Structures are given as structure tokens and as C-alpha cells.
């Protein structure tokens, strides 16, 4: 498969998700400026960032998880983006949400904005982002409203961004790092999940734990600063809870901390945890498989879970954990399934290959060019979306490889920033190994 082309298209998907005053580098001609009034309780500018999925809410918990995965992939496997001529596009891509996160953290006031837009209000309409007229309230944390999951996750995203930009733009990297350190201190001082204090976010993205985000944040800050207190913090947070390691996703980032702490300490317990997680997703493990070879964890965004596990497997292989050749081959099998190595030769990445989803659950791409009206009639239309949402990874099939290309099926056919993030970085990892002559032969597809 053409990994470089997949990276190119995935970056285009994130451009389609951009909110705010679009930059000159924007390439999606059916998108325009939107949500220019997004602001904080004191009128602070909160424009920018990414819309979450097929909707137009900015949920920072999954957005920060997406940026962590993308920035770590860029930091580890920059050569993949260089080899595919996508390096500048990738820097531009992650700078957009990072700039937004810098706006969300108001250090002098000790206020962190964790969300813009109300999910219920947003989901009650179907229109172009550019045509939105609904109220978009901000939701925030402060000294009396805790949320070290989303604040810690955002600090981790800023730290990962600082690492990725270190050799590219040292001044910007320094700004990201300063913000990451102060936001981490805020999150550490006010520990707890955000569920109670921002129920409007938890209704859609309920957080089960915060110490995983704090662990990842501390580990990335240690890598970026070499300050030993962050190393100690990461280990302390890691040892203070008992994760299930059911899946690596926007909610549970423990598996990334496993990898990072092994790289930092070289201690066997972290290595063993990574091996146990990866092998649980491989054939013979606890995760069930579809007949055509997809590790299938859950019906809601099934591909996201296997793509994220593939990303962890490739990070592990890069760190010398486990049977590295087997890990790479297994990751390939999962990514290749998504790219069309399945019974129907069907690519779950829109615009890649010749047979891919035509009706993703996504407002902007379902709306024709203005002055055409866009409303629920477009949602209910049997026709393909007027615009091709290049690079978007849809939710995916059921446990029997069945898939319905239907706009109203948000389990199988919605798209999301967090769906593409682990997937894109897994593709970058595969291309990195290929460029360096360390990628095994592709596995034979199960179907």
C-alpha cells in the first residue's frame, strides 16, 4: 500500500476539521471560516482547533488525545513525513490545534477552557459549520472545578508538540513547553476527573481516570526538559492506579505511558505491560477477530481500537520491546485491512483506492456548495456526500466484517479526529520502517 498517499490524505481530513479563521495553507475548497465568535467567559479568543467528528463541537479531551498520538508519531518517525513530502503539511496540521490549546490555557487567571459548544444543541441541527448561528458556550476548569484528565491530556499534547517542533521551530517549541509545564502544574494541583464539573463534556466523553493523562504528561515533559521531577511524577502517577488496559484510546492512555516509561527507565515491568497489551490484540489473545482478520474490540468505531493498538505495537517495536518483526507484521495486517485487504477489497479510508465509503456521518461534506440550503434533508439523502472527505477513517465493520455505508449509522460511518490519529501515526511508523529497510514482508490477508 502507498503509505505516503495515506499520510497525505489523512492530513487533508484534519484540514476539513479545522474551525476558525482558516489559514492560507488550507486546501479544502468546500470549507470556509466558521465559529469566529468562539470565546471565553471574559471574551477571550477561543477560535481555532478541530471539530470533533461529524459535528461541530470542540471537545478537548479527545482533541488532545489526537494531538498526542499525531505529535508522538511525528517526533518518532519524522523521516516518514519527509519521505512522503508531507513534513511541512504535518507541521501545519498539528500547529492548528496546538495554537488553540495555547488559547485555552490562561495561566495568569488559572482558567483552562476544556470545551466550546454544547453537544445537545449542536447535534440538534444539521448544517454547514460556516452557517452555524447557535450559541457555542465555553466550559472551563479553575481552582474549584477540577479536571486533570483533560487538563493533563492537553499538557501532554503541548509537551508532545514541543518535542515535535524542537528541531523545526525552537521559539514555538519553547512556547508550547512553557504552557505545558504551567498547565501540568495546574492539573497536578487540582486532581480529579472533569465529569462532575463539565457534565456537558462527560455526557459524550466520560472520563474513567486522570492519572493516565498525568503519567503521559509527566513522561513527555521529562523527555522535553530532562527535569527529574517529571520522571518521578510519571512513576508516582503510574503506580497510583490499576488500569485494565482494555484498549488504548482517548480515555485510557496507560499503554503510551508503558512505552514511554520503559524508554526512560528500561525497567522490565513496563516492557512486560506493553507485551501483554500487544499480545492481547494479536491472534490467540483476548480480543476477538473478524473472519477476515480484524482485531475487533467494540462496535463503536471498531477500526479506531485496532489502529491504536497497531500504533502501540509499532512504538514497542521501535523501542525493542517484544518480537519486533511479529509486532510490525501484525500492525501491517490491521492497517492493510483498513486500506482494502479484506473480503470486499473495500477501503475504509475515504478517497483511498477505488472502493470506499461515500456517505460518512459528517455535516460539512454532506452539504453542497452554497447557496444550496443544507439541513436534515441532506442528512436523510440517499445520495453520496457531495464532497469527498479525503483521508477520513470511518468507524468500521461489525464483528463479522459487515459494514453499512449509511450516513445515519454513527457507529460504523461517523468519522472523528481520534479515529484518524493513531491510524495515521501507525502508517507513519510502517513507512519509517520501510524507509529504513526494517519492514518485514506484508502478511497474507485472511480474506
TrEMBL record:
UniProt keyword S-adenosyl-L-methionine, yes or no: no
Ranges of residues in domain Glycoside hydrolase family: 3-426
GO biological process, one term: cellulose catabolic process
Keywords: Carbohydrate metabolism, Cellulose degradation, Glycosidase, Hydrolase, Polysaccharide degradation
Recorded catalytic activity of this chain's protein: Endohydrolysis of (1->4)-beta-D-glucosidic linkages in cellulose, lichenin and cereal beta-D-glucans
Molecular function (Gene Ontology), one example: cellulase activity
Enzyme superclass (EC): hydrolase
Superkingdom of source: Eukaryota
Recorded family membership: Belongs to the glycosyl hydrolase 9 (cellulase E) family.
Protein name, UniProt field: Endoglucanase
The species this protein was found in: Magallana gigas (Pacific oyster)
Amino acid at each position: 500500500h502507498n503509505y505516503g498517499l495515506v499520510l497525505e490524505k489523512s492530513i487533508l481530513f484534519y484540514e476539513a476539521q479545522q474551525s476558525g479563521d482558516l489559514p492560507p495553507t488550507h486546501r479544502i475548497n468546500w470549507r470556509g471560516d466558521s465559529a469566529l465568535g468562539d470565546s471565553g467567559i471574559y471574551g477571550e479568543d477561543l477560535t481555532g482547533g478541530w471539530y470533533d467528528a461529524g459535528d461541530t463541537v470542540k471537545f478537548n479531551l479527545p482533541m488532545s488525545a489526537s494531538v498526542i498520538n499525531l505529535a508522538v508519531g511525528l517526533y518518532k518517525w519524522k523521516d516518514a513525513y519527509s519521505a512522503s513530502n508531507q513534513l511541512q503539511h504535518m507541521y501545519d496540521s498539528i500547529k492548528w490545534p496546538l495554537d488553540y490549546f495555547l488559547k485555552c490555557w490562561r495561566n495568569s487567571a488559572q482558567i483552562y477552557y476544556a470545551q466550546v459548544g454544547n453537544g445537545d444543541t449542536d447535534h440538534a441541527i444539521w448544517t454547514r459549520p460556516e452557517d452555524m448561528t447557535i450559541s457555542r458556550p465555553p466550559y472551563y476548569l479553575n481552582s474549584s472545578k477540577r479536571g486533570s484528565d483533560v487538563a493533563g491530556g492537553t499538557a501532554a499534547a503541548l509537551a508532545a508538540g514541543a518535542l515535535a517542533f524542537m528541531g523545526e521551530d525552537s521559539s514555538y517549541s519553547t512556547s508550547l513547553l512553557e504552557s505545558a509545564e504551567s498547565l501540568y502544574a495546574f492539573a497536578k494541583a487540582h486532581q480529579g476527573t472533569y465529569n462532575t464539573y463539565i457534565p456537558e463534556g462527560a455526557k459524550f466523553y466520560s472520563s474513567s481516570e486522570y492519572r493516565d493523562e498525568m503519567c503521559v504528561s509527566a513522561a513527555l515533559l521529562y523527555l522535553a526538559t530532562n527535569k527529574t521531577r517529571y520522571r518521578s511524577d510519571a512513576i508516582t502517577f503510574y503506580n497510583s492506579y490499576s488500569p485494565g488496559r482494555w484498549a488504548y484510546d482517548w480515555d485510557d492512555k496507560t499503554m503510551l505511558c508503558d512505552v514511554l516509561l520503559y524508554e526512560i527507565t528500561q525497567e522490565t515491568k513496563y516492557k512486560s505491560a506493553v507485551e501483554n497489551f500487544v499480545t492481547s490484540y494479536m491472534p490467540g489473545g483476548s480480543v476477538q477477530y473478524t473472519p477476515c482478520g480484524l482485531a475487533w474490540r467494540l462496535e463503536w468505531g471498531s477500526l479506531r481500537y485496532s489502529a491504536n493498538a497497531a500504533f502501540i505495537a509499532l512504538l514497542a517495536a521501535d523501542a525493542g520491546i517484544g518480537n519486533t518483526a511479529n509486532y510490525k507484521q501484525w500492525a501491517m495486517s490491521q492497517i492493510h485491512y483498513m486500506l482494502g485487504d479484506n473480503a470486499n477489497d473495500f477501503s475504509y479510508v475515504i478517497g483511498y483506492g477505488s472502493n470506499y465509503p461515500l456517505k460518512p456521518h459528517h455535516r460539512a461534506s454532506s452539504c453542497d456548495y452554497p447557496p444550496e440550503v443544507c439541513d436534515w434533508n441532506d442528512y436523510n439523502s440517499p445520495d453520496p456526500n457531495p464532497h469527498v472527505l479525503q483521508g477520513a477513517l470511518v468507524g468500521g465493520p461489525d464483528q463479522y466484517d459487515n459494514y453499512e455505508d449509511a450516513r445515519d449509522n454513527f457507529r460504523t460511518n461517523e468519522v472523528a479526529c481520534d479515529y484518524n490519529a493513531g491510524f495515521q501515526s501507525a502508517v507513519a511508523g510502517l513507512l519509517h520502517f520501510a524507509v529504513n529497510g526494517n519492514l518485514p514482508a506484508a502478511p497474507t490477508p485472511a480474506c
